[in-house]
Design a protein that fits this description.
Blueprint (H helix, E strand, L loop, with lengths): L1 H19 L3 E5 L7 H18 L5 E4 L3 H9 L11 E4 L12 H12 L2 E2 L10 H9 L1 H11 L3 E5 L1 E2 H7 L6 H7 L2 E5 L2 E4 L4 E4 L15 E5 L6 H8 L7 E5 H9 L1
Helix pairs in contact: 1-10, 2-3, 3-4, 7-8, 9-10
Bound molecules: glyceraldehyde-3-phosphate.
Length: 256
């Protein structure tokens, strides 16, 4: 029955939160790998929870990827409900297709919900000296300051090899990823199964260690194929983070 299914999912959520060492896990039915509506359900849960915690004047940091793009897709037009909200990209370009870039997602979110957004135009794969001068740019600094004042951050977790291929990263990136046995990626950091950072794309924006200062950390990642990636990243997530996932990933994570 529906009631049995619901209580079974609640038990899965508690078991997984305990196993991963984070405050809360929210699981939707199905597996994102095999049906696109599952990812949409997962995003709907994220939007619902976000709605509960946001207040007037809040800054929301948002990352890129197909999961975050789905959030912009399903966010209802009355989401703001009178609140002045500002969506800010959590990281500069990581070589994604335009529709999966944080800049695009923030602008779509703002347009759809009649709120505001900021852009963070920084090219990917810059040299060390360019990186330093970009950091000194007033517009970049303004955006970084906004990110540091965010009340919430929404982000995805990618499978390491999938992300390297999708981003057309430099020739030997894939080799490095394979050699170092990276399994997961988030914020441009790549992690091995133990959670060690084994590679990092130098990009401007929120750094991994800064998540702990943000009151609401919402992670959206589903699908059995992402189980290892989720486990590798979550070792860096602050305790108060909430993982939004699906049964496909949850069952795999609990058996591993
Ligand atoms: O950094 C993580 C990726 O952006 C996640 O992308 O949601 O398309 O798997 P995805």
């Amino acid at each position: 029955s529906v009631i049995d299914e619901t209580s079974e999912i609640r038990q899965l959520e508690e078991a997984l939160a305990e196993k991963l060492g984070i405050a809360r896990v929210i699981i939707v039915q199905g597996d994102s790998d095999s049906a696109s509506w599952v990812k949409q359900d997962l995003c709907r849960e994220m939007v619902n929870e976000l709605d509960k915690v946001l207040i007037d004047g809040d800054v929301i940091a948002v990352n890129g990827g197909t999961t975050m793009a789905e959030i912009a897709g399903i966010a209802p037009s009355n989401f703001a409900n009178g609140r002045d909200l500002l969506f800010v990209p959590a990281r500069g370009g990581l070589g994604e297709d335009l529709r999966n870039q944080a800049n695009t997602i923030c602008s779509r979110l703002a347009e759809k919900t009649l709120t505001r957004h900021r852009a963070l135009y920084v090219p990917e794969q810059v040299t060390e000296s360019t990186y330093r001068s970009l950091l000194a740019e007033p517009t970049v600094r303004d955006t970084l300051n906004l990110l540091h004042s965010a009340n919430a951050v929404l982000h995805g977790i990618g499978d390491a090899v999938t992300m390297t291929q999708r981003r057309h990263s430099g020739n030997n990136t894939l080799e490095i990823i394979k050699e170092k046995q990276a399994v997961g990626e988030a914020f441009g950091y790549y992690f091995d199964e133990k959670g060690n950072v084994v590679y990092q794309v130098p990009t401007i924006g929120l750094q991994l260690g800064e998540l702990t200062n943000i009151p609401h950390v919402f992670i959206g990642a589903g699908g059995k194929s992402k189980a290892k990636a989720i486990a590798s990243f979550v070792k860096h997530a602050p305790y108060h983070a909430i993982l939004f996932t699906d049964e496909g990933a949850a069952h795999k994570l609990l058996e591993g």
